[in-house]
Design brief:
It contains one helix and 18 strands. It is mainly beta.
C-alpha cells in the first residue's frame, strides 16, 4: 500500500494509492525508498499509554503472593491492548509465572481484563530484569480521566520476582496480600507502600485516531519512468525536502 500527501500537505491529508497498477504502463521503471522522520509526519499517534515508566535497576517490591496495583488514568478514550511491567528477578534457578490485570478502580468489582500468563525459567537465562509486555485476552474500552488499577502478580518463592519501583513523594503503591490464583473480586487492597511508584503501564488504541502512515516509520516508494521522473515521486520529494537513509 502506498500513501501520497495531497497538494496542500494538510494534516491527515493523505491519498491511498493502493498497489502499482496505476503505473503499470510505464517503461524502464525505477523505485525510490523514503522514510518520513517523526517531525515531518502529519499523522497523529494512534496509540497511547498510561502508568509509570520511571523505574530502572534493581529497586523493587515483591509480587510473590502479593498483588501490586498502582492506580493511573488515561488521557484519551481508547481500547486497552496490553500491560507492560518492569520485572526484577532475584531468583536464579526456579521457574515462575507472572500475570497482569486491569481493574476499574471507580466501578469496583473484578478485573475488566486479564492478561495471558508468562513463564520465566531462571535456570535457562530467562530471568532478566526489564520491561515485559503482557497481552490482554480481552480489550475493554477505557475512558479519559477514569482511574484504573494496573495489577501484577506472581507465584514465585523467596520473593524471587518483584515489580520495579521508584521513590516518589506523593505517590503510593497499593497491594493485596493473596496466595497466587484467580484474580480477586473485588480487589479489596490490604494496604499501600508510601512514596512509591510502581513501573507498570497500559498501552491502548486511541478512540477515533486517524489511520494512515505511522508516525516516524512510514516507508514510501516512488515509481516512474527513468526520464523524466514521474510526478508521483516528485511530489513525494518536494514534500520530504530530504532523503533519509
Amino acid at each position: 500500500m502506498f500513501y501520497l500527501p495531497q497538494e496542500d500537505s494538510a494534516a491527515d491529508a493523505w491519498v491511498k494509492l493502493g498497489n502499482v497498477q496505476p503505473f503499470a504502463n510505464v517503461d524502464s521503471t525505477w523505485i525510490e525508498l523514503y522514510r518520513i522522520p517523526t517531525a515531518q509526519s502529519p499523522m497523529a499517534a494512534t496509540t497511547g499509554w498510561f502508568g509509570s515508566q520511571d523505574a530502572t535497576g534493581t529497586t523493587q517490591r515483591s509480587i510473590e503472593d502479593m498483588i501490586l496495583s498502582p492506580v493511573y488514568a488515561p488521557s484519551e478514550n481508547g481500547t486497552a491492548q496490553s500491560i507492560t511491567a518492569y520485572l526484577v528477578f532475584t531468583g536464579t534457578t526456579g521457574t515462575y509465572t507472572v500475570k497482569t490485570a486491569l481493574y476499574d478502580s471507580v466501578a469496583g468489582g473484578g478485573p475488566i481484563a486479564e492478561s495471558s500468563v508468562r513463564s520465566f525459567n531462571c535456570a535457562t537465562g530467562e530471568c532478566i530484569n526489564g520491561d515485559y509486555t503482557f497481552t490482554l485476552t480481552t480489550n475493554p474500552a477505557i475512558t479519559t480521566g477514569t482511574r484504573y488499577r494496573l495489577a501484577a502478580w506472581s507465584n514465585s518463592t523467596a520473593s524471587a520476582v518483584g515489580l520495579g519501583r521508584a521513590t516518589v513523594t506523593g505517590y503510593s503503591l497499593p497491594y493485596r496480600s493473596l496466595v497466587y490464583g484467580a484474580w480477586p473480586n473485588p480487589f479489596a487492597q490490604s494496604g499501600s507502600y508510601s512514596s512509591t511508584r510502581g513501573h507498570i503501564y497500559c498501552t491502548y488504541e486511541i478512540a477515533g485516531a486517524p489511520t494512515g502512515p505511522p508516525l516516524g516509520t512510514l516507508m514510501m516508494m516512488g515509481i516512474g519512468r527513468s526520464l523524466p521522473r514521474h510526478p508521483f515521486a516528485e511530489r513525494v520529494r518536494n514534500y520530504m525536502n530530504q532523503e533519509v537513509e
